[in-house]
Amino acid sequence: MTDISSPIRVGIVGYGHLGQFLVDRIQKKGLAAGLSLAFVWNRNADKLIESVPKDLILTNLSEFTQIKADLIVEVCHPQIVKDFGVRFLSHANFLVGSPSALSDSQLDKELRLTAKKHGKTLYVPSGALWGGQDIQRLNDSGSLKALSIRMSKHPSCFRLAGGTFSDWAGEEGRCVLFHGSVAELCPIAPNNVNTMAAAAIAASTLGFHGVTGEIVSDTALADYHLVEVEVTGPDGFSVKTVRRNPAKLGAVTGSATYNSFWSSLLVCKGHGGRVYLC
Ligand SMILES: NC(=O)c1ccc[n+]([C@@H]2O[C@H](COP(=O)([O-])OP(=O)(O)OC[C@H]3O[C@@H](n4cnc5c(N)ncnc54)[C@H](O)[C@@H]3O)[C@@H](O)[C@H]2O)c1
After folding, report:
1. Helix or strand holding residue 19 (H, E)
2. Cα atoms in the 13 Å half-sphere on the side-chain side of 73
3. 30 lines ligand 1 (CB under 6 A)
4. Average of pLDDT values for 143-162?
């Protein structure tokens, strides 16, 4: 556990929507919450100059070890998790904002081993997932039989890799874009499946290959995203949840997810060498 008398020093990696939100919150409410900024990195450092004090700007991410951080928060891109995740976790607790990166089973394994070896926690934010810790408990007791998650959004809210499904782009109405394993879905829609990835990490006995994901484009969903989760346990046990996540047209991230991410950050005080859904 980190010493609670001194604030937890947080390094923020990425300064897009989530990064800006978190930096602003830490600057305004951090001390009351026991947090302070250690550094902020963005691939384009110019974006930071106006709003981040100069001494907190990290220009070369490879030099993150030169600044003491208790917690590193990635809110950038799965590629940064691949390139830096193991190094981050060797030095600090690590909140992975792009958990879809863990669909790469080799990386998943390396991160889990690094957490154990260095006694650092790999935090996975539950994001728009409802009941993640219940899923994890069912998983840990060996009772989780199946898990499927459907995310439905307005077509403007999808960012799909390399023009995938470009033929549906202008379609009116509802269209199932993909139905299959979360492992197959993550590389296709890396920015849209963090919630499913968090579920697959909680459901480690099923894993990314065993959890079913579906993404649906629906032009009726102009004001919110829908997240539907169906959990199956033994002897006819099942839970279905439907979450409406208010979101503006074109927004990859629902607005409720920002506050959810902040709540996740407040949990990251050190839980030893393991993966922790928060
Ligand atoms: N876990 C969750 O619940 C959750 C919720 C929302 C977003 N996310 C994820 O968090 C990340 C940030 O989300 P956001 O809404 O702030 O996105 P955003 O697009 O607003 O910002 C991303 C930032 O990362 C930078 N970036 C993009 N690709 C990069 C790369 N390959 N290398 C270095 N920098 C790169 C961009 O320049 C930008 O500054 C995304 O991966 C997103 O999928 C996770």
Report:
1. helix 17-29
2. 31
3. no
4. 90
Of 9-23, 121-135, 254-268, the poorest mean pLDDT is in 254-268
Please work out whether the CB of residue 252 comes within 6 Å of at least one atom of ligand 1: yes
Q: Which of 15, 151, 253, 278 should be mutated for ligand 1, with most atoms under 8 A from CB?
A: 253
Please report, as a single letter, which amino acid is at residue 245: N
Positive or negative, the CA dihedral 83, 88, 93, 95 is: negative
Hey, what domains does the chain have and what are their CATH numbers?
A: 8-128+257-277 (3.40.50.720), 132-253 (3.30.360.10)
The amino acid that residue 147 corresponds to is L
Q: How many angstroms separate the CA atoms of 130 and 143, rounded?
A: 19
Q: How far is the CA of 14 from the centre of ligand 1 (A)?
A: 7
Cβ atoms 37, 26 nearer than 8 A: yes
